[in-house]
Design a protein that fits this description.
Elements (H helix, E strand, L loop, with lengths): L4 H14 L3 H8 L23 H14 L4 H14 L12 H10 L5 H23 L17 H11 L2 H14 L3 E3 L2 E3 L12 H6 L4 E3 L7 H12 L7 H14 L2 E2 L4 E2 L3 E3 H5 L15 H15 L2 H16 L16 H15 L2 H15 L12 E4 L11 E4 L8 H7 L15
Antiparallel strand pairs: 1-2, 3-6, 4-5, 7-8
Amino acid sequence: MTACLTDAEEAVLLVADRLAEPDSVAEIASRPDNVEPIYGASMWAPVALAAGLPGIALLYAELAAADERWFAVAHRHVARAAQLMSGQPANGLYAGPAALLTAVHRLSPNYGTLRRKLAAWVAADQQSRLDACAARTEPGVSWAHYDVINGLSGTARLLLDVGETGVVESTLRYLVQLTEPITVDGRTVPGWWIPSELQPVAEDARRYPRGDFNLGLAHGIPGPLALFAAALERDVEVPGQRAAMRRIGSWLLARRRTGEAGAFWPCRLGWDEELSPAADVFTREAWCYGAPGVAAALHRAGAVLGEAGWCAAAVGALRAVLARDEQSWRLDGPTVCHGYAGLLQILRRVGTAAGDPVLLGGCARLTARVLSFADPAAPFVFPHLVPDSPRGWLDATGYRRLNVAGMLEGAAGVACALMPAAGAWDTALMLT
């Protein structure tokens, strides 16, 4: 395939054809050898946005918006996900009822009864999680207290769209409080500090023995910032919300680093790095971590608050991404989370909002790069590439190609990003 609009359309339709039958998709994606090397995790999670049926349904929802014939295909995936949902744990926005609600909401006005039931369930679960988070008396929080993937910000963004304003306001009040400074070992630090005992995996606890501060849009403080902005855009506001946004925005801007091409952000900062920056920090140029995700949140918040400097900083950081050697981007393949499709979608959203020709011009470059990964011989056309070692890039020799079907790590998300006219599928990415 060559990199042009016609071929992007061809790629989208080919992906749509390959993902059309839920049983066939499940058979391929759930094969025992189709596992992620680091954690040994299966690349098939049926009721999940990242690698399952709800994420695939989002692709067909976007296609159905232009051609209603695709609705029947979307229905196959929604119906199968609903059958499989019983007993599925609630793990934030990306799994279980919230994931399915994300898909069926995009298919409105269909599924009215199912949408209402799912919305009520997610709202009740959100309130239960809020109560559990608020009950913590020790300083510090976990990702599940606030992040987009597993935490309160992602589900609150969904609940904002489905009209569950009461629990959204409760979430906003909790997150405002979370941004207040706290004192730990005689030092004042941001309230979103993640102590060692609440790190998500043992390796993180070892790496950050005194805890850390997460700057990624997927798991860090930009997620609440994007949620606050989305709420203000919809005239949902609680006391202290704007002040909380300014605390987050000022903190993020103060932790920018500058390279030869311009500004960038670390992925995470350890306890000592937070106030005494180390010279060498890891970053990438992805949706999940790095300048693109931070810039997307800052630009949106800056626009709603009238902070022109934030918007300019965001655009400048994204221009710097495009100016860097692509090898330094540390992107893994074509997919959304930490691949080229996520960067493409951020450039499109921020570039359009800012009217910036450099960012919009970068979309053509990124579209061509995404298409360069298209492989008609691959089951889902676009493979998910991961380091081929259980230790990741510490000793990887190359990529392992996995067959993933969903939105965040799979072909459905790549296809969505290749459709410039696609609607709000990226709400789950905190981009709309």
